[in-house]
Amino acid sequence: MLLLGIESSCDETGVALVESQDTALPILQAHALHSQITMHQAYGGVVPELASRDHIRRVLPLTQAVMAEARRSLDEIDVVAFTRGPGLAGALLVGAGVACALGAALGKPVLGVHHLEGHLLSPFLSADPPKFPFVALLVSGGHTQLMRVEGVGRYQLLGETIDDAAGEAFDKSAKLMGLPYPGGPWLAKLAEQGDPMAFKLPRPLLRSGDLDFSFAGLKTAVLTQAKKLGGDLEARKADLAASTQAAIVEVLVKKSIAALEMTGLDRLVVAGGVGANRALREQLNAACAKRSVRVHYPELHLCTDNGAMIAMAAAMRLQSGLEEASERYAFDVKPRWPMASLTT
Ligand code: KG4
Ligand code: ZN
């Protein structure tokens, strides 16, 4: 079965083709991505109207590029998958609209996919795919969650952020330091030249005894520190970046280890944009190696939003018999869509 996946929930247009057989893991055939980052950079964040317009411009040329790379024709597609939510309503509607139009024109069914389930299952596209069950640390721009994952559609939320997400903590702190949008990768790069012990920043909820996170206070502490530095900020920016990253990473690592201990599982899967962070990977690897826990990540280029994870999640949901693709071409996107509602 050949599945086309379309991602358009935020600021990347992603299209991919995945081939799925009865029980084996689906395989990525081709994927293409257009990032809108440079377009939004001038505004310091995503402008929803511009995002939607750009998805419209990019999605069909990207689809053509993917089909050409895989040497397949559109009429060979069996299912058209798209991101149904959560995300920006107008941006989601572009992917849903194009998926439904393609499905209707080709006489093929469509399937709407949860964006976070896409991230969660993206490590199955890597050369070293995980096995169920595992603990998942989902760290994106909008979400920070720890989950116990028994199988496709069998997700138990163990803890989540009560305010900002980890990606948001990176992005907002970076913005306070005058770094470009999106700040995460910029802050991480600057942090490589800094001293992570230079400034004492809070590790919120580190000893709360549960698996919840809170990052809003960190951003305030970074702002206070930046103000205190005044004219010296420029010279100490790398140290402040390194200290901020160290605070976020320490909390993510300690809570992941606590989740592994609580569940007794010996496998950790990290997914979402912040999963690309090198310091996080190094410290998780070290902490897990000590405990004989295997850690799995998505390929670096599939950590942030992409179409491959959407096609993959659709393929795995269909394989597991959780749902069927539909020929009811409804543009019913869900800009707010709790992941808990996916659990069977
Ligand atoms: O998963 P994603 O692409 O989008 C959402 O679904 O939100 O995650 C984007 C987030 C942004 O906050 C971005 O700054 C962060 O991931 N990010 C990073 C790195 N690469 C992306 N944060 C820290 N270090 C990185 N290397
Ligand atoms: Zn995402």
CATH architecture of the largest domain: 2-Layer Sandwich
Rough outline: globular
- The number of distinct β-strands equals 10
Considering DSSP H and I runs of 4 or more, what fraction of the residues is helical? 40-55%
Uncertain runs:
none
**Helix count, per DSSP?**
10
CATH topology of the largest domain: Nucleotidyltransferase, domain 5
Count up the domains: 2
The ligands found in this model are:
5'-O-[(R)-(carboxyoxy)(hydroxy)phosphoryl]adenosine, zinc ion
Secondary-structure class: alpha/beta
CATH class of the largest domain: Alpha Beta
N-to-C order of helices and strands = EEEHHEHEHEEEHHHHEHEH
Q: Please name the fourth-level CATH homologous superfamily of the largest domain.
A: ATPase, nucleotide binding domain
How would you characterize the largest beta sheet? 5 strands, mixed
Question: How would you summarize this macromolecular structure in one to three sentences?
Answer:
The protein is an alpha/beta fold. It contains ten helices and ten strands.
